[in-house]
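Reopening: T-complex protein 1 subunit epsilon still failing for me.
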Amino acid sequence: MQQMEISNHVAKLLVELSKSQDDEIGDGTTGVVVLAGAMLEQAADLIDKGIHPIRIADGYDQACDIAVAELDKISDTIEFSKEETSNLVKVARTSLGSKIVSKAHDQFANIAVDAVLSVADLERKDVDFELIKVDGKVGGSLEDTILVKGVIIDKDFSHPQMPSEVRDAKIAILTCAFEPPKPKTKHHLDITSVEEFKKLQTYEKEKFVEMIQQIKDTGANLAICQWGFDDEANHLLLQNKLPAVRWVGGPEIELIAIATNGRIVPRFEDLKAEKLGSAGIVREMTFGTTREKMLVIEECANTRAVTVFVRGSNKMLIDEAKRSLHDALCVVRNLVRDNRVVYGGGAAEIACSLAVEDAATKTAGLEQYAMRAFAEALDAIPMALAENSGLNPISTLAEVKSQQVKASASEKGKLGVDCMSRGSNNMKEAFVIDPLIGKKQQLQLATQLCRMVLKVNNVIVSGADENDF
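Support: Ran it again with your exact input. Result attached.
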């Protein structure tokens, strides 16, 4: 949606709505757009009947409050811990079921749960997404995707003759230039003879050797530098048996520092043994017959930094897998924050729709029309699910609604659309669940958008033809 070229102003608002849901919750972006579209469609019918937009907006607000309260009523809590993660895996699997990666959804669900729990603080109910890096490389299949308890960077050792593996690595993380110091004045040096050039060359070499020795004296056996160094310095590093990596980007440098418990060193004079990072193994990873290599830093001092390395047959598949994984990570993150859930398959929407319809009949005034319209808009989600599953949407919705009305209080909110034709539409038994905070956010964002659109009387675009709108 972000890449669509849209001229319609309401459509632009829907794209922004989807982005807000993605930024805040990470999943449920399609549902929020479907819901908002259905609510706007219902509102247009009410305006045609002569009901004022402000009365419709007020009715929608009342209906939204009732629906959110109903979600709280029908919600359940799911229990999990760092040892017992089966419930979290099932939730992540639900999120991945509708994505392109669904054929590997078991593997991706386990990766998402392991990644989130590695960086989560369960006591504070907090997850730092900055510590989860998702990277990808074309080649292999989706099943080759791995979770690395450490950092992967798209670099290799600076010299091909350097060892491809360093064990018990003590890492000097440098953001200063690996070169002889330059004068801070604007003077320039004139070299008029071969002897003077050789003297300068000798000085440069001495300085390089001095810098390399300074790194080795701290106990470091690997240097990671944000900047580059020339071939002479590279050769001297090889001679002095100090493996090095150059041109490592700023975000990667930060992740390496966090993962290895090292300190970033901005000046050579500040380099000390206590500022070194430590890792069990730093190795080069090769890919099939290609000459491409990546560097893997594993068994780090701080295991809270993790990297998901996605493989796939083409770039489009990898990008889609990354987006799917982002949704699964967000779902698990949301459950760490708040472990209350509602049931999917349209069950929660139908329960809210029935609650709003019931409240509408008890409401005096024109708002009851808007509340009924809100209830009909909520039905758009289960109808879309039924239609996409090859079922008759109207008869399926009517059947599930009647079942929910007749159901006991404990069963209400658990009966949805049987998309997989299992023979049972109890979503608790099928473990089709959504985090409560995501579902609440969907209702609130869609209602806010409708309220904003209903309050717009006219759109005037400077310099545009009046027939454009």
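The chain has a mean pLDDT of 85. If you still see a failure, please send the error message rather than a screenshot.
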